[in-house]
Structure formats: C-alpha cells, structure tokens
Design a protein that fits this description.
The protein is 9% helix and 34% strand. It is mostly beta strands. It has one domain (2-15, 24-125). The chain has a five-stranded antiparallel β-sheet with strand order 1-7-6-2-3. The protein has a two-stranded antiparallel ribbon with strand order 4-9. It starts with a strand and ends with a strand.
Length: 127
C-alpha cells in the first residue's frame, strides 16, 4: 500500500497550516500494480466508485461503505486498487483527479463481463 506523492504533499501542507480535504473518494480497479501515480495496469472497468471512511484512529482509517461495481466491462482479474479525489476519466481511461493512495486487494479476483464486484472493507494505514 502506498500513499501518493500528491497526498504526501497535501498531508505535509496540512501540518504546515494549509487546509486540505478531498471533495470525495473513489476507487478504481487494476489488473496489476497501479504504481504510485495510480495509472498503470488499469482495468477495463473504467468506473470509479465512491467509498466512505470512518475517522482515523491509531494511524489507520477504515472504510465505512462498500464499493460496488455493477455489470463490469470485461472478463479480467483484479489485483489492485487506486483511490482518487474525482470520479471522472479521460479518453484513455485515466482518472482526471488526483491519485491519493494505491494498494493490493487481499486476494486476486477473477470476474466475467457483466458480473458485480465489491470491495467490502478497505483500511488505509500510515506507519
């Protein structure tokens, strides 16, 4: 799991007195490591799905909602996710917002076109 350079800078700026809050948080699926930028190995499923988080405690913050993709675009195997502050994509299937965080699923998940896929629990941790 990796916090993005954008989010690292935003966190440091917040400590320095510059306020920061993501307008929303959205998950994107990947078929391999998305890299720190969140743009590598993007899944054919282009939708970014909203996810909410509880207040942080002890250096961790857990999801308080389930992220659900309905009628996924194609058969593939998901292995990773990226977290974004916007839910739109450009013509290349790249999100147009800022990548906040990336990580691996607890296990790979193979789906068929038309399936529903869910991430029921996600924890972000700073150490």
């Amino acid at each position: 799991m990796s916090i993005s350079n954008y989010a690292e800078d935003a966190l440091l700026n917040a400590i320095g007195g510059t306020s920061f809050a993501a307008a929303g948080t959205y998950l994107k699926l990947h078929t391999g490591d998305p890299s720190e930028t969140g743009t590598a190995n993007a899944a054919a499923e282009k939708d970014l799905v909203a996810i909410s988080f509880s207040a942080a405690s002890g250096g961790s913050m857990g999801s308080s909602s389930t992220a659900t993709w309905v009628d996924v675009a194609s058969a593939e195997t998901y292995t990773h996710w990226s977290l974004w502050d916007a839910n739109t994509v450009d013509g290349s299937n790249d999100p147009t917002g800022n990548c906040l965080w990336t990580g691996a699923l607890s296990g790979s998940a193979t789906v068929a076109a038309g399936d529903t896929f869910q991430i029921t629990s996600l924890t972000l941790t700073l150490d």
